[in-house]
Sequence to fold (335 residues):
Amino acid sequence: MISGIFLYAIASIYLVISFIKDKFKTKTALLKSWNMFRNVLPDLLAIMLFIGLALSLLTPSLISSIIGENSGFLGIIYSTIIGSIALVPSFIVFPLGHTLVQNGAALPQVAVLMSTLMSVGLVTLTMEQKTFGRNFAYARNISSIIMSLLFALIIWVVMT
Amino acid sequence: MIKLKRYRFFFILLLGLLIITFMNQAIAIKTVQLTGKSILDMLFLLPPIFILVGLLDQWVKKETLIRYMGEKSGIYGVFFTLLLATIAAGPLYIAFPIAVLLLKKGASVRYIVFFLGAWSTVKLPVLVNEFTSFGLKFTLIHIFFGLVFYYLTGILFERMYSQQKLLKYDTTMEV
Fold:
């Protein structure tokens, strides 16, 4: 909330300065902002609804039972698959991870789940392809899966 | 018609929600609450980010951005990219149009990959959240390993992709 207010303050200050300096440029800037917003809105709404559905259908205790203390390597695989479906904002991911650990999920599995949730998205892959081309989009997602698995491995070795 | 087509996934999911409503109202209510809250969060966080990006597009000259995020920007590139990536909240797909804009302004592929990686690893607004939920050790491993990994990935990707190749599609234009 505080960071939101902070961002609004910065944006407002720059907007006013920009408007005083050059009205036309400011208008073009706002038009571009609006287009960017409109371009992400359909995906944004769909993804938010998707996450809402997923979180109410899959209860934390259900997920925790799949990736519990004894789930081992298979649990890591399940976490990677579940986490790779959609890109979820971090302010949802960390509270979710915390709830899962409290419900008995193992830390390395939760680590890979959280990391892939934030960086790997199959649902948004079409959008990412449109932005950077197919090759780059795939490579970026694959690199993020590798990062998440290595991160989980480190957590496994260091913290369990 | 074209505009409605872009909302097709949303409508399909909405239909799914409608079916669930008939089967189990408790789940449907929970879905609406969860979705409503995250959409409100997003609508609150996004406008200032997009306004700043729009202003950046108009005011920051290409030469200036090349100095901060170009191929020869060195340690400035790392810090400037980190600042841009970690200060803003929101899911990773919000970072895609921003990344395109930075590329267009002359940022190197290395820092774009690092930008996307840092965006998905470190978020200053939720850092406290991660720290209180998982402890200092976990948070530090996550941040340092993530940043080093994505910086190295950036160096690798810089050899594989050219700036021009990634700039096929302009997200600030109307579709």
